[in-house]
Amino acid sequence: MEEGEADSLPAAEKKEAEEEDFGYRLFPDRNKKQSFLVRTLFTFHSKCQLMLRLTLETNPYARLLLEALKQSGCTVFNDRHFSCENCDGCVSGGFDAATSQIVLCQNNIRQQSHMNRVVTHELIHAFDHCRAHVDWFKNVKHLACSEIRAANLSGDCTLMNEIARFKFGLKGHHQACVRDRAIRSILAVRKVSKETAEKAVDEVFDACFNDLEPFGRIPHSKADAKRAYRDFQNRDRYNANL
Fold first, then answer.
1. Annotated catalytic residue 122
2. Which of residues 4 and 53 earns the better pLDDT score?
3. Is 99 exposed, middle or buried (0-12, 13-18, 19+ CB in 10 A)?
4. Are 28 and 87 in contact (CB under 8 A)?
């Protein structure tokens, strides 16, 4: 991804990316054009849209990220930057760098809490896309860094979520979860070996794990996210008065 909001990659570059299969196989609806009527006839699509709206309006993680994106010059619009689609059974969402669009897997997201996490995770990728020259397609370290940040800051690795996955641990468990989920995410969307994914994650882990923007802290709960959102708003008010 590129700094700011680039609507698309050059056609030849996007075609090359698709041919090399940069995760597009997981999102088969990406290249299908469906009418509004056809899409709204499916219950999954309507439910996905309703859950998305609720997340964007009420979830403190998402609200903070939307505000941070706006202030970084990348305003997010519901109808332009989100797309509810059918996906492969192993994924819940994705960030399409070629279109600056977040894909939400309507056939795999069934609960509001799940929607909250997926939207937050992908908005972190969108924030990284906005603020940095991220080479999503060619530089696996760049991808690894954003996946580390998304796992660390989105709530993916909260204690309750890990218990639900039947994973338990105390010392260093959060870091272990972030590392594991970052590696899994890379392997899901790139044709690289597990060793390559692990090496990329390990090489950038410390720097990217400690990059807490725009939250300023690791939000382990909604209460943490609300505090981070308040702090973010107050920080902006302070900066405006300088």
1. yes
2. 53
3. middle
4. yes
The structure tokens listed for 113 are 């809490």
The pLDDT score that the predictor gives to residue 193 is 96
The edge-to-edge listing of strands for the beta sheet with 101-105 is 82-85, 101-105, 93-96
Was domain 23-29+38-133 assigned CATH 3.40.50?
Answer: no
The predicted structure's pLDDT at residue 158? 75
Q: Which residue is listed with tokens 């050059």?
A: 10
Active-site position among 122, 147, 195, 203: 122
Give percent of the chain with pLDDT exceeding 90.
61
Going by pLDDT thresholds of 50, 70 and 90, the confidence category of residue 42 is: low
Question: Which residue from 96, 95, 109, 128 is spatially nearest to 44, judged by alpha carbons?
Answer: 109
CA 211 to chain centre: 15
Q: What are the sequence ranges of the domains in the chain?
A: 23-29+38-133, 135-216
Look at residue 33 and tell me whether its pLDDT is greater than 90.
no
* Largest pairwise CA distance in the chain: 52
